[in-house]
Design brief:
Elements (H helix, E strand, L loop, with lengths): L2 E7 L4 H16 L4 E8 L4 H12 L5 E10 L1 H6 L4 E4 L4 E4 L14 E3 L5 E3 L22 E4 L1
Parallel strand pairs: 1-2, 2-3, 3-4, 3-5
Antiparallel strand pairs: 5-8, 6-7
């Protein structure tokens, strides 16, 4: 079995994702039968992060991911691409709600209402919770967990 290890430490950008992709493709060309991705990242560009996630999921060999420091934001998505996932003692994960822009608003943060509906906290003319259909809502706080 030819194990290849790829180290990824730093922010997620289009350039860093291309580097990781090229290293994985080079490992395949060199006869890799398994790839380990050792990573520590503060997150970064969502588009680039999801592109790397889908690339890693498409690899025709087993992928194992290792958190070797801190995996934050969209880095958690990339970490979840591994069929096997490991975290060193003392490492951490930062998971936060997705924020996106609407027109001239900076971001929207959805929270659960008492009746199970969701409402936007940053939209000035939000639909009243009483007229919204109930549905599951994402967490509205950042979570940092040490492992």
């Amino acid at each position: 079995m030819a194990l290849h290890i790829v180290h990824f430490i730093g922010p997620i950008s289009h350039n860093s994702v291309c580097t990781v992709r090229n290293l994985c493709l080079q490992a395949l060309q060199n006869g890799a039968t398994e790839i380990e991705l050792h990573m520590s990242t503060e997150g970064g560009n969502m588009t680039a992060g999801f592109a790397l996630y889908f690339f890693l999921k498409s690899l025709p060999l087993p992928l194992t991911t290792h958190n070797i420091g801190s995996v934050e934001s969209v880095g958690v998505v990339i970490f979840l691409a591994g069929q096997k996932r490991y975290a060193c003692p003392g490492t951490r994960f930062l998971i936060h709600p997705l924020h996106w822009g609407f027109g001239n608003l900076v971001a929207a943060d959805h929270r659960a209402c008492p009746n199970g509906a969701t409402a936007s906290t940053s939209t000035p003319n939000a639909t009243p919770a009483s007229s919204m259909k109930p549905r599951a809502a994402p967490a509205s706080r950042a979570i940092s967990a040490a492992i």
